């Protein structure tokens, strides 16, 4: 029984680390694509519209 619990903990940990790795890889790929697009167009940043106020602001890195 303790071996089963240990194996389950290891499997869950490996799955969690894999999902985190994939998530981080997607974020980095999107950031890279955005930076490449900004470099091609000569833009300084990406503007997004705030739905509450209707004003535009620079897109933050965590969005």
TrEMBL record:
GO-annotated molecular function: peptidase activity
Keyword annotations: Hydrolase, Protease
Entry superkingdom: Bacteria
GO BP, sorted A to Z: proteolysis
Name of the protein: Membrane protein implicated in regulation of membrane protease activity
Organism: Rhizobium pisi
Origin organism lineage: Bacteria, Pseudomonadati, Pseudomonadota, Alphaproteobacteria, Hyphomicrobiales
